[in-house]
Amino acid sequence: MVADERGSRARSRGRRPAGENTRAALLDAARIEFTERGFDGATVRAIAQRAGVDPAMVNHWFGGKDGLFVAAMEIPVSPEEIVHRVLDGDPERSAERILRTFLSVWDTDGGGALAALMRSVATHEEAARMMRELIGRVIFGRVVSAVAPDQLELRAALCGTQIAGLAMVRYVIRLEPLASTDHNTVVTAIAPNLQRYLTGIL
Amino acid sequence: MVADERGSRARSRGRRPAGENTRAALLDAARIEFTERGFDGATVRAIAQRAGVDPAMVNHWFGGKDGLFVAAMEIPVSPEEIVHRVLDGDPERSAERILRTFLSVWDTDGGGALAALMRSVATHEEAARMMRELIGRVIFGRVVSAVAPDQLELRAALCGTQIAGLAMVRYVIRLEPLASTDHNTVVTAIAPNLQRYLTGIL
DNA sequence: GTCTATACAACGATAGAC
DNA sequence: GTCTATCGTTGTATAGAC
To answer: Taking the domain A79-199, which CATH number applies?
Structure first.
């Protein structure tokens, strides 16, 4: 998104801590490259070039490619926003709001970023760990605890299966007709099942 | 680790004595390497070394790394067996039989083979295409057409989301408690949802 | 003798390290 | 910037099957 943050803004007066801008530029560039190409596909050289700095800076600031990855990897949606939008309304229709939120975010770039994320999760243990905590706690943990306190962790994990499965089929495997149908059809088909995981009888 | 599994004696150039099956050794080694490291992570050289043969044999027998991959990559379940076992019984309880079949197969090796398959599907377009056809046609296509003819393709894709999501959460992300609960709990939780995709109102 | 499965060497490309 | 390691791949000589 922010491709070149260093060039478009005047430096403030006085000397700043050495390398601070370089570090931030590398993080921004790394997020873009890792998102578009996955962990293995993204190269240190490409990230450094995008940031407009020397590849050696990756070693200097992050100790290598792995360090840069864990520092840069952030989820392509804001968990806070999702949780907030979901909890604001009828609890018995929260599944529909969850699905619409995810679909609207994921479809903005044709699911490219999401497919890249799934790729990283599947291939990189570090990304899998982050996704584990993200699904279990940050998103569904909070959502489920607000609507149905019993069997909280199981419900969160079950919601994860449905969302992760939708992501895999629609954006990674691209199985028709689910890969290209409109949001309403997807919501009509999946929302009742997701709602059962949230508030139904297990 | 196992550098020379097929024997420690020196190999001479030229054709080897009859009875040694280089092709099969390569397939075995390839399954292990692809399983542990994914498509990109597994190297032709490592596979050949594990098989105790020359890397050039990969080209000779399979035309390259891709050919070896598609040859070695076997779906960790037999589609025919699954379809048969699923269709043999009450259609309204077919979801439960599907889930039990998948779980019993996947849990035999701790989900290692399945996790590798998901990794390959996420990173390799060839594997994604195979999975696409496998889910859409071979497995759920037949199952759904036998129990509910309306909206066949959509139902098949929806079933795919639930199964793929379960695979991701239980075996790749390993999110608790779903990662280590018994089959009955999983079936009780998920079967009703899967059944709705098969025969319910969408 | 012919065929072919095999090992060895080396190439061009690429990417991380220093 | 340079160096080095390693990747997938290709060419070729050779040993053994047929």
So the answer is: 1.10.357.10
In terms of average pLDDT, the best of A124-128, A131-135, A153-157, B16-20 is A153-157
Mean pLDDT for chain A? Answer: 79
- A56 in contact with chain B, both atoms CB, cutoff 8 A: no
Largest Cα–Cα distance in chain A? 63
DSSP string, B95-151: HHHHHHHHHHHHGGGTTHHHHHHHHHHHH-HHHHHHHHHIIIIIIHHHHHHHH--TT
Question: In the structure encoding, which two tokens stand for residue B176, read together?
Answer: 């608790």
Domain B2-73, CATH 1.10.10.60 — does that match? yes
This model's pTM is above 0.85: no
- Beta carbons of B162 and A158 less than 8 Å apart: no
Structure tokens at A64: 């290598």
User: What's the pLDDT tens digit per position in B91-109?
Assistant: 888 889 989 988 988 888 7
- Residue A95: name the closest of A157, A151, A140 by CA: A140
Contact A161 B154 (CB under 8 A): no
